[in-house]
Amino acid sequence: MKTAVMKELYSFLQHQNRYGSEQEFVDDLKNMWFGLYSRGKEEGDSSGFEHVFSGEVKKGKVTGFHNWIRFYLQEKEGLVDYYSYILDGPWDSYPDVLAMQFNWDGYYKEVGSAFIGSSPEFEFALYSLCFIARPGKVCQLSLGGYPLAIRTYTWDNSTYGNGKKEKRKKTGRDPHISKQ
């Protein structure tokens, strides 16, 4: 919350009457990102933060793993084998968007997308905005004058409002980024 981008996000959401106080916003972010949900039959075995920023394996395939810094560090350690990119966004500077295929510690990711060159707080703020504003839907945005879509998903078995926090529409997980 000490970063400019998170302060800007809070200010925007407060002006939209989504939050009455910064503490309410912080509490919601903690629950949204670190509240547990089930990837399958297990009870509370994952979180939005783990899925988006760290990546996870479900049914033998990589899911999530949308953070370029984690990707870089895992590749540097020899745990990620980058195969190819499917989409390179239209931006001439950073952040950019890249959709790619890779193998992570023996598990395949058919198509994964991530911002490249952005700060973690930028990604955290942008994904949070989309989770709050468009739960379980496509969040249409403009970045540097180009259209961008981030897809969020809600989960039924979640500690975050049971996956369906209807009050003020604050729920969601798993951003999928694409150029429109």
TrEMBL record:
Region annotation (Disordered) ranges: 161-180
Subcellular location, record wording: Secreted
GO molecular function terms attached to this record: hydrolase activity; lyase activity; metal ion binding; RNA binding; RNA endonuclease activity
The keyword Iron is assigned to this record: no
Keywords from the UniProt entry: Endonuclease, Hydrolase, Lyase, Manganese, Metal-binding, Nuclease, RNA-binding, Secreted, Signal
Predominant place of localization: secreted
EC numbers, comma separated: 4.6.1.-
Gene Ontology CC entries for this record: extracellular region
Lineage: Eukaryota, Metazoa, Chordata, Craniata, Vertebrata
Protein name as it appears in the record: Uridylate-specific endoribonuclease
Source domain of life: Eukaryota
Coiled coil: none
Subunit structure: Monomer.
Family: Belongs to the ENDOU family.
Pfam family, one: XendoU
Reaction it catalyzes: ribonucleotidyl-uridine-RNA = a 5'-end dephospho-uridine-RNA + a 3'-end 2',3'-cyclophospho-ribonucleotide-RNA
Cofactor(s) the protein requires to work: Mn(2+)
Ranges where the EndoU domain occurs: 1-180
